[in-house]
Design a protein that fits this description.
Length: 356
């Protein structure tokens, strides 16, 4: 993909103090503007308002956000930098509740603080260790996505016409993508792959980001509204569905962008395999089922307004959950970097993830 989702931007004096540089996804595809984040609050706002979004990308951005926090004590003691880094991690953890990759990445950063605090001679040294860890999380995510892509492409027929929802692509990860990674891998393998992207109301990640990314990547893509998916299935236009996930419980129930569950129900009815593509960092093995997954509710204006214009009468109540949960029973397989969990049972989840 031509656009880099995020990168660490070194400062004038070297790598540190530096800044987190992201593409502002709120403006895509019309405007490709970069945001340079030099404060923890700025990073929190970018995650909250979806300037950076998608579970793995939120995790990577929050890891860099901890570095941004630590470097406020760059010239101070190790203890002061550790306190600033821990405060940054605690604050960033309040930005969005559903994608578990956020908490996974912040826990890794907190573990790194705990490990490094004794050996670092000053704040600058601790910042350097934290930046290395954030970069490691970032780089590993790209490799993880490539593995997911390879396993996912192997599940598809050739030719394949696949539906996806929201954006689980390079923009939603450190690069390449999970669900979209499967499409890129299929194309790289010379397969005849085409995608139908649902627009994804209310914030249009499918219309704005998935079509943009796939077009840039040379994967044929057709846009449709969310409500058209069942009709497309009934008309024999689809061979499979592949979506991403924000949090997957131990039994395989998977939370993803609102509207995903409808696609799974429709796919089951039409006998079309419905796959979820996600890295191990998206699994929350502490949760027995999807009923325990916290679902973010977002602002009324996302529904009652469109492009800043009011579209619903004043005073009409709204309900705006950002995610829904697809039960494991509707999922034909979960595509991970270690292979495909199929059939989706708790035992298979634990076995494939190496946690049995
Ligand atoms: O609200 P968003 O845009 O962050 O929601 C994103 C999704 O639901 C994605 O499908 C999910 O995070 C997987 S990204 C690889």
């Amino acid at each position: 993909m031509a656009i880099e989702t995020m990168t660490w931007r070194p400062g004038d004096a070297g790598e540190l103090p530096g800044a987190l540089d992201i593409i502002d996804q709120r403006l895509l595809p019309a405007v490709a503007e970069r945001l340079v984040l030099t404060t923890v609050q700025g990073t929190w706002d970018a995650i909250k308002t979806l300037a950076v979004r998608g579970a793995p990308a939120i995790g990577c951005a929050s890891a860099y956000g901890v570095v941004v926090g630590a470097q406020t004590a760059f010239g101070a003691s190790t203890a002061e930098a550790a306190a600033a880094a821990r405060a940054a991690a605690d604050h960033l953890a309040t930005s969005r509740p559903t994608a578990v990759n956020l908490f996974w990445a912040l826990d890794r950063m907190k573990d790194t603080i705990a490990r490094a605090v004794e050996s670092c001679e000053d704040g600058a040294a601790l910042c350097a260790v934290l930046l290395d860890e954030a970069k490691a999380i970032h780089q590993a995510d790209v490799e993880t996505c490539r593995q997911i892509g390879k396993h996912g492409a192997a599940l598809l027929p050739n030719p394949a016409r696949v539906l996806t929802h929201c954006n689980a692509g390079g923009l939603a990860t450190a690069g390449y993508g999970t669900a979209l990674g499967c499409f890129y891998a299929a194309k790289e393998a010379g397969m005849d792959i085409s995608v139908m992207a649902c627009e994804t109301r209310p914030l249009l990640q499918g219309a704005r980001l998935t079509t943009y990314e796939l077009q840039q990547g040379g994967v044929p893509v057709t846009l449709m509204s969310d409500g058209m998916a069942a009709f497309a299935m009934q008309n024999g236009k689809l061979d499979a569905v592949i979506v991403g996930a924000d949090r997957i419980a131990r039994n395989g129930d998977a939370a993803n962008k609102i509207g995903t569950y409808s696609h799974a129900v429709n796919a089951k009815h039409h006998g079309i395999p419905f796959y979820v593509a996600a890295p191990k960092s998206t699994f929350d093995l502490s949760l027995a089922s999807g009923q325990e997954i916290p679902i973010e509710e977002r602002a009324r204006e996302e529904l009652s307004e469109f492009n800043g214009r009011q579209i619903a009468p004043e005073g009409v109540p709204t309900w705006n959950p950002a995610f829904d949960v697809t039960p494991a029973a509707l999922i034909a397989g979960i595509i991970t970097e270690f292979g495909v969990i199929q059939p989706v049972t708790e035992a298979n989840v634990l076995a494939v993830l190496g946690e049995a």
